[in-house]
Amino acid sequence: MMGVIMYLRLGYIVGNVGLIGTLTIISLATFIIFLSSLSIATIATNTPVKGGGAYFLISRSLGIEIGGAVGIPLYFAQAFSISFYISGFSESMISIFPDWDPRYIGMVTIFLLGSLALFSTNATIKAQYFILAIIGFSLLSLFLGRPMEGVEIKMWETPTGSSVGFWPLFALFFPAVTGIITGVNMSGDLKNPARSLPKGTFMTLGVSYLIYMGLPIILASRADTSTLLQDPLVMQRISWWGGAIILGLWGASLSSAMGALLGAPRVLQALVNDRIFTKQLNILGKGAGLEKIPRAGTVFTMALTMLAVYFLNLDMIAPILTMFFLTTYAVLNITAGIERFLRSPSFRPKFKIHWFFSLLGAVGCIAAMFLINPLATISAMVVISLIFLWLKRRRMEATWGDVTRGMYLTLIRYAIMRLSKDAHPKSWRPNLLVLSGSPNKRWRLIEFANDLTQANALFTVSTILPEKSVGQDKVLKFEKQMSDYLQRRNVQALVRVIRAANPFTGAAQLVDAYGLGPLVPNTILLGDTKETKHHTPYAKMIDHFHQSKKNVLIVQDDDNRGFRHHRVIDIWWGGLKRNGSLMIILAYLLKNTPKWYRATVNIKMVVASEEGRVDAQKNLDELFSQMRTGFQYQILVAKIESFWDIQKRESANSDLVMMGLGFSRGGKGFEEYYSKLKENTASLPTKVFVLAAQDIAFEEVLR
């Protein structure tokens, strides 16, 4: 916490915004870190904390994808912070040796510090005590100093005409209070992280805040604005012994760099060990010796920081660090807030705070980011989002539980409790129950359901197992196998497996019982039955669906031709009511998918005479202009041909044929009707028979 900013840039900040402005910047930055510290303490006292610090805390709560999306930028922020501290050290060195190149000073320093970190963590930490004593001596020397001679000091004057605004200076100062992240990153090396992290963090924050609030008062009372702006080492001129400031600066910059050199490789080590990166980078996660020092990760970090030191300077690095650190603290606050808000039984921290404080910390971090640099903030969010999507596409599986399931359950409960059972037609969507059996055997059903729902509605893939040959203990195993299969095929669907005496009674039982509150399937999608002995129970099952007010879609694909080119959909239409409206809605949903968006939808209607065609044409012109579907429609005159002959000729080359399913009340005669229907349409390509049974005015959806 006592670092480069304190020695080299605090005077510059006072010179630009005055004493009150500087104290405001320090207080605001510390307040944000204080709220974040509360969140860190809450998470750290709830679960055993291992290596990886902030990444570990986030990933174990919000999941590996969000943890990785924040952890990767956090690692680079830590690595760049080493460059930041070393750049400050080099800047002070050239004030004594002006002929030296600060870039090479920095690179040599990184090599020496890295060599120490490579071989002993304990030795590196113990060296910090000596450095702390030097920093303490430098602050004492500053306290015992006196004002500059020959200058007029106006302590409470607010500078005018400053070229640097409040928020850029806040961005410049903020890295000075991010030192607590170093302690968090060393969590895996602590004997009792749950005790040490909160205690060390709050003590550090309190002591450093008192020191930081006192330093601007000393600077403003001993030096004029011009000197504060022009001399980075103004503390040297107003101290009891100026050399102590140089020693303190060296100690602070080297101490901070050493801390970051210990912390950054351990974040990288945790990322690698969680398989965030490819196997080729596994060497970066290996630990050496009893202390499990990530030597390969340390060497990699050293090389990265040397490049940054060579190409960047102190003022260029500071705003970059601020964005990455603020992002990390924002997500830590969100993590703690969500955990506390959800009240999960597994979240029982010893250090408890209200979720509001975590939310306030997150809002403070995000607001500060936008006020500092909106473009940089958006860029940081884009980077994190891209990393998240990359990790999500890799379908990574964590070996630990996280808070995401609890979040989803809370959101689901909220939505279901507010979901009306009697939905308005305008909000209707197909909530499908697919009676597919084994998914790989009737994939066409799942494919069709997936196209209809478009990831905007629910659908469930179900199968009924014979209860005589399959035990109840095998049900979950089958569900897992089906879920994995669907996931590999990029299909987002629920899975339900039940046991029954036969598939027909099992399907009826499933339709009666499946669902949650108002969230129940409204449409049953199933295949055809080919065996004659199954016609009677199949017809009774359809009758049961109809009486249950469920829409029925029967997909018939006799020759396993599928949907071929996905280019032509024919709808054989008998009017707008019931089946007719539902078929047009289904065709419209298909047209909005990548597979079917080039398809032509043809509405075909058969009339008995030419006079009937004229009347139908007039009605359809007005009707379809109101629908706004863009579908084509055609009126065919039967003359001496039968309907079935016309249909056979007109739809012979279609990719999908839809037609309504007639159904008498109580299902009387359906078995015979359906057998004749299949016989008359046997030569057609893939067909979907549509039966609208739900109590909803589907024509309202089209208006």
Q: Which key features would you list for this structure?
A:
703 residues, alpha/beta, Amino acid/polyamine transporter I, Rossmann fold, 3 domains, 10-stranded mixed sheet, elongated, SLC12_C, chloride:monoatomic cation symporter activity, SLC12A_fam, AA-permease/SLC12A_dom, transmembrane
Report on this structure:
This protein has 703 residues and is an alpha/beta fold. It folds into three domains: 4-393, Amino acid/polyamine transporter I (Up-down Bundle); 429-527, Rossmann fold (3-Layer(aba) Sandwich), CATH 3.40.50; 553-703, HUPs (Rossmann fold, 3-Layer(aba) Sandwich). Helices cover 58% and strands 8% of the residues. The protein contains 26 helices and ten strands. A ten-stranded mixed sheet has the order 3-2-1-4-5-10-9-6-7-8, sandwiched between helices. Helix 2 (10-44) runs antiparallel to helix 9 (193-222) and helix 5 (102-119) crosses helix 12. The chain is elongated, with a radius of gyration of 35 Å. The mean pLDDT is 84.
